[in-house]
Amino acid sequence: MALFYQPEIPAGVHYLDQEESRHCVKVLRHGTGDIIKILDGKGNIYKAQITTASPKECVFEIIDTTIQDKPPFHIHIAIAPTKNLDRMEWFIEKAVEIGIQEVSFMLCKNSERRILKTERLEKKAVSAMKQSQGSYMPLINELVSYPDFISKTREEQKYIAYVDFSNPAKLYQTASPEGTYCILIGPEGDFTKDELELAIQNGFSKVSLGNSRLRTETAGLAACHILNLINLQ
């Protein structure tokens, strides 16, 4: 059964937006009386019956609600967006499928992209959440400067992925399960020495993601996967 998304159900909104309504009625051919499943991105999965099958505003009534527990950990990837936005869309899509709770975008000294609109990324996240049968929509934060982000980070386990092959600390060996994590992923030109020092001064530990030199979006996905695997043990 296809999943639909309406984040405002807890506030009393019992209709799909125009894009979701069109997909439901025009593409999937659902009609009045049909049963559908809807996510609100907050852990609730609704069984609903369509009462008005309009492609502009598909109205429904809630029949049943189930709640999926939050995972006992919080993965926050802070990443410098790539010049090619498609690569960030790929990262968001795959990270949501694997499991991520928060994504932030940082403007670093070596960043190639200095302006970022998150609307397309949020749509990719919604699509990936539905595709992977997830029930929590990750928080996607706007682009901020690297120093501003560093100063406001509050996670318990904080790491900076830095290209330094003499660094013996591997993320999979360093992170412990059921924590709140923040890992910094730099631009293709990597973090500067000053940025690395600023992170360390603010409680971040330098870690390696492996023996290969990874592209920005690959590094972000690798970190997300490693932290999920740690929490499956």
UniProtKB/TrEMBL annotation:
Gene3D superfamilies named among the record's database cross-references: 3.40.1280.10, Hypothetical PUA domain-like, domain 1 (2.40.240.20)
GO biological process: rRNA base methylation
Entry's EC annotation: 2.1.1.193
Subcellular location: Cytoplasm
All copies of domain Ribosomal RNA small subunit methyltransferase E methyltransferase, residue ranges: 71-227
Coiled-coil stretches: none
Presence of keyword Transcription: no
One Pfam family per UniProt: Methyltrans_RNA
Catalytic EC class: transferase
Residue span(s) of domain Ribosomal RNA small subunit methyltransferase E PUA-like: 16-63
Matches recorded under InterPro entries: Alpha/beta_knot_MTases, PUA-like_sf, RsmE, RsmE_MTase_dom, RsmE_PUA-like, tRNA_m1G_MTases_N
Keyword Electron transport: no
Keywords in alphabetical order: Cytoplasm, Methyltransferase, rRNA processing, S-adenosyl-L-methionine, Transferase
Reactions this protein catalyses: uridine(1498) in 16S rRNA + S-adenosyl-L-methionine = N(3)-methyluridine(1498) in 16S rRNA + S-adenosyl-L-homocysteine + H(+)
Any one cellular-component term (Gene Ontology): cytoplasm
Main location: cytoplasm
Molecular function (Gene Ontology), one example: rRNA (uridine-N3-)-methyltransferase activity
Role description: Specifically methylates the N3 position of the uracil ring of uridine 1498 (m3U1498) in 16S rRNA. Acts on the fully assembled 30S ribosomal subunit.
Matches recorded under PANTHER family: 16S RRNA (URACIL(1498)-N(3))-METHYLTRANSFERASE (PTHR30027:SF3), RIBOSOMAL RNA SMALL SUBUNIT METHYLTRANSFERASE E (PTHR30027)
Similarity remark: Belongs to the RNA methyltransferase RsmE family.
Name of the molecule in the record: Ribosomal RNA small subunit methyltransferase E
